[in-house]
Amino acid sequence: MRISTRVPDLTALDLLLSVIELGSLGRAAQAHGISQPSASSRIRYLERLVGAPVLRRTSLGSVPTAAGDMITALARDVIEAAQRLDDGISRLRVDRDAHLRVAASQTIVEYLLPRWLKELRAQSPQTAVTLVACNSSDVSASVAAGRADLGFVESPSHPQDLDSATVARDELLVVTAPEHPWARRTAVTVEELAAETLLHREVGSGARTAFERALRKHLPDWRPDTCFELSSTAAIKNAAVTGLAPAVLSSLAVTRELQARSLTAVNVSGLSIRRSLRAVWPVGQNLTGPARQLCAIALRTGRSL
């Protein structure tokens, strides 16, 4: 359906109705928050489209002409329909802003999102947030399937059906208990690291994916042999502190342990695993409402890390 160029815009029709209701162009201009010259300009625009005067100026104000009476009768239905449309859009916005579904990898959930959500609450206290912690591959799957409005991942890549923006950066560290032999060494080799049984998150986690890709750059034929798989960062840290095995963890996760010397960072010669932490959302879809707010907060505060 194509609307004719002869149809006036809604602001001109709404202004005409106000002039007739209030009996004065000046009072109508004031009610619409515009100057009287601007109001006169809109009425002249309307009259050019109609091809006839719609108002007659008198010493007591403005009254409609015959053409103005006809346009006014038709315009009321149009303006009322436009108001219903506006009300419907407002309800959609309220529904959208009432609930935000977020999926994020565990490192981001535990060490970054609490600050981001605190600021979001200050900006939009009416928004309820549902947060699901899972590995990066599951985050991407949730966002792509529409189960989450916004995701945060730490894996080196994401599916092609998602857009992304880097919100922070961190580094993966090899850490071990102070009594482990590696803790007393200046450095270990990549080959030694590859041969060691390590504490890891499950397959699909961002940290594990980034570590394995980095190791294969040095040892293309390397394949994981044995490791301890634990389902949470906290469990991995606790196991590493007991001396069970060295662990590969985000620098964000071990700051306190390194300061308290319950864990020691191990220098691996020639190996540095720096990575981007990213927000993800469906490709081609613009973020709106609380999702856009949260992404903006993450972008602003994450850069300071």
How would you explain this protein's 3D organization?
The chain has two domains: 10-96, Arc Repressor Mutant, subunit A (Orthogonal Bundle); 105-302, D-Maltodextrin-Binding Protein, domain 2 (3-Layer(aba) Sandwich), CATH 3.40.190. 47% of the residues lie in helices and 20% in strands. The protein is built from twelve helices and eleven strands. Helix 9 (206-218) links the parallel strand 7 (198-200) and strand 8. The radius of gyration is 31 Å and the shape is rod-shaped. The relative contact order is 0.13.
User: Could you spell the SSE succession in H and E letters?
Assistant: HHHEEHEHHEHEEHEHEHEHEEH
The amount of helix comes to 40-55%
Major sheet attributes? 7 strands, mixed
- What is the radius of gyration? 31 Å
Classification by helices and strands: alpha/beta
DSSP summary: helix tally: 12
- Going by CATH, the architecture of the largest domain would be 3-Layer(aba) Sandwich
Proportion of residues in extended strands: 15-25%
* Dominant shape: rod-shaped
Straight-line distance between termini: 52 Å
CATH class of the largest domain: Alpha Beta
Predict the CATH topology of the largest domain: D-Maltodextrin-Binding Protein, domain 2
Q: What is the number of domains?
A: 2
Number of strands: 11
> Averaging pLDDT over every residue, what do you get?
88
Point out poorly predicted stretches: none
Itemize the secondary structure elements and their pairings.
Layout: H1 10-22, H2 25-32, H3 36-50, E1 55-58, E2 61-64, H4 66-98, E3 99-104, H5 106-111, H6 113-123, E4 128-133, H7 136-144, E5 150-153, E6 162-176, H8 190-195, E7 198-200, H9 206-218, E8 227-229, H10 233-242, E9 247-250, H11 255-260, E10 264-266, E11 273-282, H12 289-302
Parallel strand pairs: 3-4, 3-5, 7-8
Antiparallel strand pairs: 1-2, 5-11, 6-9, 6-10, 6-11
Helix pairs in contact: 1-2, 1-3, 1-4, 2-3, 6-12
